[in-house]
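Quick note —
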Amino acid sequence: MKEKSNEPEAAEPEPTTEVLFLCSYEGCGKTFIDAGALRKHSHIHGERQYVCHYEGCGKVIFLI
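Predicted structure written out below.
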């Protein structure tokens, strides 16, 4: 039979959430943990958007 050693086992480091992707659009500064989320977010800064011209509406739809 193996005897247990009295040495404490090395504790595994706790996982950390690191922000790896930063939106480079001027004045935004939002951060994301994966490239896909940043890519999806970047569409809101694009010129491909539709503004409703119906009187009094003015809603904006971002086209992908």
